[in-house]
Amino acid sequence: MPYDTVATIEARRRTVLVAVMNNREDFRRAASEGWYRIPQRRVPLRIGADYLAFYQTGAFSGDPEAQTVTYYAPTRRYRLLTRREMMPDEADHPRADDYYFRIDIGPLQRLEQPVPSASMRRITFIHTTLDRLYSAADVRDLFYQEDPFETLWHALREHRLRPLPNRIVAGEPVDITLRASGGYLGVQCRPTSSANEAPYLPLPDRWRLLHVAPSEIERDLNRCLRRIASGLISLGGSDLRRVNDQL
User: At what angle do helices 148-158 and 221-234 cross, to 10 degrees?
Assistant: First the structure.
């Protein structure tokens, strides 16, 4: 999708998770089978994103894509599986019983302007936006100075809650999960356009889902906290009721 076809600000704000691609077999799976895996023990604080992009490491030495972000794809589905379930042909692997997040993706697309890494070599995961991915001149340009998601995460912790990251509910990633006496409140931090276009899937019992746009967090963090407090109270309440008294 060329940069000049992205028509709205909301579209340009769509989220991208830049992941490390460090072997050719994983790249083959992404290109031909349409999926990528992240070990649960190494997962970033947030895996949910509209797109997955790949930083190809020095393992691709000799290829022009080495040490660049060149390819990206829309995300389709998330699952938590054991390595054995994902790769039954390697059932005797030492980590066969380890859990991985499997991310199903659409066709790989090539950036018109690949993003090189002039100086950074030890890259892990980067949460960014489609706008930054299209316009970055270097991998360093992909980083947020202040990520709205992390702002919300730390605000919840400051109110003595225990937010849990990366739950998979009805095939969708939930960025933040909060326990309430009557169930679970899931919070997805994504642009309004992404939330509106997300497929509706029935939620499990005792679950409620709340969408909070990054722009809302930047504009009025306290209002976002009040919305979350209201959601928790509707599920029987939690310690976040203190937030309403403080705001």
Answer: 60
What does the pLDDT look like over 27-61, one tens digit per residue? 999 999 999 999 999 999 999 999 999 999 999 99
Q: Alpha-carbon distance 216 to 174, whole Å?
A: 18
> What's the pLDDT at 205?
84
Residue ranges making up the domain that contains 231: 148-246
Same domain, 75 and 120: yes
**Do residues 152 and 224 both lie within one domain?**
yes
Do 57 and 177 belong together in one domain?
A: no
Mean pLDDT value across residues 85-89: 93
pTM of the model: 0.83
The CB density around residue 103, as the number of other CB atoms within 10 Å, is 24
Q: Provide, for the chain, the percentages of residues in helix, strand and coil under a 3-state DSSP scheme, each rounded to the nearest 5.
A: 35, 30, 35
Q: Final residue of a domain: which of 142, 162, 190?
A: 142
Q: Copy the structure tokens of residue 160.
A: 């003595």
Q: Give the CA distances from residue 20 to residues 28, 176, 231, 233, in Å, rounded to whole numbers and listed in that order.
A: 14, 23, 36, 40
Domain stop point among 142, 163, 188: 142
pLDDT in the model for residue 144:
83
